[in-house]
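MODEL INPUT / OUTPUT PAIR
PAIR INDEX: 1
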Amino acid sequence: MRSKTIKDSYRYAVLGLGGLGSAACYWLSRTTGEDVLGIEQFELGHVRGESQDHSRIIRLTYHTPSYIRFAQQAYQAWAETESEGGEQVVLKTGELNFWPPNTTLDETAYLESLTACDVPFDALDADEIHRRFPEFRFDDNVRAIYQPDGGLVAANEANRMHQRLALEYGAALIDNMPVDRIDQINDGYMISAGGMIFHAEKLVIAGGPWTNKLLSHFDVEIPLLVTHEQVTYVANENLSDFMPDRFPVWIWMIRDNFYGFPVYGAPGTKIAKDRFHPIDPDHRSFKADAENEAQVMKFLRDHIPRAVGRKLYSKTCLLTHTPDDDFVLDRIPGHPNCVCIVGAAHAFKFASVIGKTVGELLVGGTASADISAFRFDRPGLKDPVTWQLPNG
C-alpha cells in the first residue's frame, strides 16, 4: 500500500498500474486530486508484466499520419510531465530504421507519412549509412531512414514519476491487491479486491496481459495474444562510442525485427529480437531463451562488430498484442463510464498521452487526439481473427 489514507469511495478507479495505468492515475489526479484510486495486483514496479526496464524506444517514424500525430502529442505530454515532475525521462538520441531488401514492411508508407506530417528525416543509402553511422555494417542494398527526434524513454523512471505525481495530487495507490470481482452498481462500479470493497463512479481497465481477466467481469473478451519476449545487455571495450550522444536507437525493419539502444542504465548496449512466443501470463518463465541470445549476438557480430563483447544479462518481459497491432483506447461497449486501454506491444512511448486521453474521455467526455483507430468496434477486433506471427 502506497497511500496513507484509503477511502471506500472514489470518482475514478484505475485497475493496473503499469506504464499506461500509472499515467492514467497521474492525469486523472491532476484534475480531481484525491478522488482517484489505483489498484495493482503485484507490487509497484514489478517485473511480471510489460512496463519495466531501463529504456523503451520513442519515435515519430510510423506508417500512418494518424500514428505520427499521436506520437507528436506523446512528446508533448512527456514534456509536460517532465516539467512538472522535475525529471528528464525522454532522451533524444536520433533513430535509425534499416530496410533490408527482403522486408515485407512498406518503406513508402513511412516516407509518405513522415512527409505528410512535415516531420524532418533523412533517407540514406548504404554509403550514407556508413559515412554518418560507421558503427553499422550492412550490405549495399540496405537503406535507412534517420529521424533526429527519436530516442528512448526511461521506463522505470517514467513509471515512478507518474506514480509519484499522482500521489502528490492526492491519489491513492494500492499494490499487492488482485481484483476479485467488479459489479456494476447503478451508474458506477463496486470493486472487490484483497478482501476490501471500493466504489467508483468511473473505471479504467489497464490490465496489460491480464486485460481479458478484468474484462470477463463485463462479459467482454477481445482477441489478445500475450507473448514472452526478452532483451540482452552486452558490454564491450568501446562503450564511449555507444553513448546516447553518439549512437542512436535503431530498428531492423522486418516483421520479427531486431532493435537496439545506446548505453543507458547498464554498462553495455541493449539489443533484442522479437520472439512472438505465446504464453499464459500466470504461468510464465523468467528464464532467458538461449536461441534468442545467440541470434542477437550474431546480429551484433555481423552488423555492429564494435559492440560485441561479454553478455551482461538477458531479462524477459511480456507483450500484449492485438490482431491488427493497433491500441485499444475506448469505452467498453455498454459501459460509457469505463475505458479500456491495451498497448498492443508498442505503447510505452505513448504512455503519458494515453493517460491524458483517458482523463479527457472520463472527465470531459471527448478526446483531443484522433483515437478512432483504437475503437472496440473496428474490423481488426470484430472480424474472425487469424494470428499470423513469425516463428517464436
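PAIR INDEX: 2
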Amino acid sequence: MRIAAVLALAVLISCQSSQSANSANPAPPSTSSPIEGRTDRWHGPPRDLSQDEAAGGHVLRKHVGRTDNELRDRLEREHNISGASAYADRATAEHAIGSALAQSQDRIQRWLNRSGGHANLVLDYDSDQPLGRTLNRGDSQSRPCSHAVVVLKFDPPAGYHVLTSYPECRS
C-alpha cells in the first residue's frame, strides 16, 4: 500500500513539474488572421459564434466561407437584399466580430442599460486587410471587403446575441 502511494505521489509531482515547465513560457496567443499576408492585429478576443447561432443568429449559416456561386444563388433566392457577402472563414468572422464588440463596449453597455424597447444595435468594424467578399446585385464578380457590420439583438437575461454580421465594401 505504501509503495502504491509513493508511486502515485511521484507521478503527480512529475506531471506538475512538466506542466509548469511548459507553462513557464507559453506561446503567445495568435492574434493574426488566417488570411495569408494579413498584418493587422485583432482588437479583442474572438467571439464564439456557435452560441449566437443557437440563440437565433445566422452568421455561420449565411456569411462564412461561401463561394461566389453560393452568393449568386442567395441573391436569386432573396430579392430583398442588394448584396450577399461572406467572411473568408469562421476564424476571421469570429475575430472581426470579437474586435467590433471589444471596441464598442461603452456603446453596448449604454444600449443594454437603457429602459424601454431595444432596437437592434448596429456596430461597424474596419480592418486594414480584407475580411471577406461581397457580391452586389448586378455585378459579375465579388469584391474583397475590409469593413464589417455587426448586428446585435437584445436577448435578456443573457444581454444580447449576434444576430448577423457580414463583410461590406465601403468605397
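PAIR 2 NOTE: Residues 1-40 have pLDDT under 50 and may be disordered.
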